[in-house]
Amino acid sequence: MSELPFAATTPVSVARVGLRARDAESLAAYYRDVVGLQELSRTGGTITLGAANRPLLDIEADAAAKPDDPRSAGLFHTAFLLPSRADLGRWINHAIGNNIGIDGASDHLVSEALYLTDPEGNGIEIYADRRHEDWKWNGDKIAMATERLNISSVVADVPAGNAAWQGMPDNSIIGHVHLRVGRPEDAEAWWHQEFGFDTMAKYGGAAVFLSSGGYHHHIGANSWQSAGAGRRDPSRSGLAWVEMRSNNVTDETTREDPWGTVIRTGPGKA
């Protein structure tokens, strides 16, 4: 049994994500077959998927929704964090064996990650963290970079005789959510004020990474495609909401960031 990743042990962490889908059945099939989530339940027009018994993703059917606009505020990617490097290697073997196309593969120093895009344009990251004790710091800021991933090295971590990918294992979580925003400075101020998050790193003036409890980031916010974007159009597909888990609250709350992105918060430990 793997341990729960460090990202989920902090005072605040990401619990799950809601997507509004034009074709919920096809999108759910993609997250089952490609990402490795299991279908946990169906309620009305919502399909809930997760890992083991942990719900991670709600897909809400809205056939009338307009396609997402990548230049608007919204979801850059949902980042699924696997418990170990060997698990990431198993997913890579699964991707190779099933001719799953990826958008990129990066070594971020704190983590190793692969990127893909679902059929409705929602970004996905599948990653494994390096041990947080081994992360490097520049004062109070985490050292992160974007370097080429050594895929063969990751795959070599898969134990002989235990190479098969069998879906996302127990203790897989959403490690972080990366958002498209109009101004990263405004996102930074909002997450500081509303959640007490710390700024962990910045990529120039176009991206900021924020977290609770010393994680490298629970929330990323960038304006690479969406500089100057205003409030989200609620009639579009894509991100419906992000749900955070907090040790610091006793009641469920809902609020909106400066772009109208719905952020839910619930009490309890991971």
Describe this protein with a few key phrases.
270 residues, 16% helix, 4 helices, seven-stranded mixed sheet, 18 strands, alpha+beta, nine-stranded mixed sheet, 39% strand
Describe the secondary-structure layout.
Layout: E1 12-21, H1 24-35, E2 38-43, E3 46-51, E4 54-61, E5 74-82, H2 85-97, E6 104-107, E7 111-117, E8 123-129, E9 137-138, E10 141-142, E11 147-148, H3 151-155, E12 173-180, H4 184-195, E13 198-203, E14 207-211, E15 219-222, E16 238-246, E17 253-256, E18 262-267
Parallel strand pairs: 1-4, 5-8, 12-15, 16-18
Antiparallel strand pairs: 1-16, 2-3, 3-4, 5-12, 6-7, 6-11, 7-8, 9-10, 13-14, 14-15, 17-18
Task: Provide an overview of this structure.
This protein is α+β, with helices and mostly antiparallel strands and 270 residues long. The protein contains four helices and 18 strands. The protein has helices at residues 24-35, 85-97, 151-155, 184-195, and strands at residues 12-21, 38-43, 46-51, 54-61, 74-82, 104-107, 111-117, 123-129, 137-138, 141-142, 147-148, 173-180, 198-203, 207-211, 219-222, 238-246, 253-256, 262-267. The strands form three sheets. The chain has a nine-stranded mixed beta sheet with strand order 11-6-7-8-5-12-15-14-13, with helices on one face. Strands 2-3-4-1-16-18-17 form a seven-stranded mixed beta sheet, covered by helices on one side. The mean pLDDT is 96.
